[in-house]
Design brief:
The chain has about 160 residues and is α+β, with helices and mostly antiparallel strands. It has 2 domains: about 5-65, Alpha-Beta Complex (Aspartate Aminotransferase, domain 1), CATH 3.90.1150; about 80-160, Arc Repressor Mutant, subunit A (Orthogonal Bundle), CATH 1.10.10. Helices cover about 55% and strands about 15% of the residues. The chain has helices spanning about 5-15, 20-30, 35-45, 80-95, 100-105, 115-125, 140-145, 145-155, and strands at about 20, 50-55, 60-65, 95-100, 130, 135. It has a 3-stranded antiparallel sheet. Strands 4-6-5 form a 3-stranded antiparallel sheet. The protein is elongated, with a radius of gyration of 18 Å.
């Protein structure tokens, strides 16, 4: 495959999948996938996009993110959903994992149980949360949220500011 074909393939994969592992990119693009991503990165800049990577559970994951911090990433999300996510992440950044029932018990004082469950499902699909036997921080939260800054804000202002 030529460089232009590899670039095109990488762009298609990144744009239409939530995330790609380094192994998947190596298989589909070739062992020089990092060089292809560097070239593609330059082209994405003109669209206000950038290719980011994170380490997640021993794997390097690549995904596309908005390059311009001024663009509202919360577009389409309701404030109550964001409040639920903030509550959950504040717990998970400290405990690392938690049973969904524990989260529901904590949040049911502020939100209806159906709303909590819908938000958890929505944020799992978006990659902010992961559900196995426990609720855990998802790959997208690790990529987009500065944990230290987030917790500083939570402790400085308290959780009451998030609802």
């Amino acid at each position: 495959m030529e460089i232009e074909e590899k670039k095109k393939k990488a762009a298609q994969l990144l744009l239409f999948k939530k995330k790609l592992s380094s192994e998947e990119l190596k298989r589909k693009i070739g062992k020089n996938y990092e060089k292809i991503l560097e070239i593609l990165q330059e082209e994405f800049k003109g669209f206000g996009l950038k290719i980011k990577s994170i380490e997640h559970e021993g794997n390097k994951l690549y995904f596309i993110s908005l390059d311009d911090a001024k663009i509202d990433k919360a577009n389409g999300l309701r404030i109550d959903d964001l409040s639920i996510l903030a509550y959950i992440l504040s717990i998970l950044f400290i405990k690392e994992k938690c049973k969904i029932k524990e989260i529901e018990e904590i949040l049911k004082e502020k939100f209806p149980i159906w709303k909590i469950r819908m938000a958890i499902k929505k944020f799992e699909k978006m990659g902010y949360l992961e559900i196995n036997d426990f609720l855990k921080i998802g790959w997208r939260a690790k990529a987009e949220i500065d944990e230290k800054k987030f917790l500083e804000l939570i402790f400085k202002h308290g959780l009451e500011k998030f609802h």
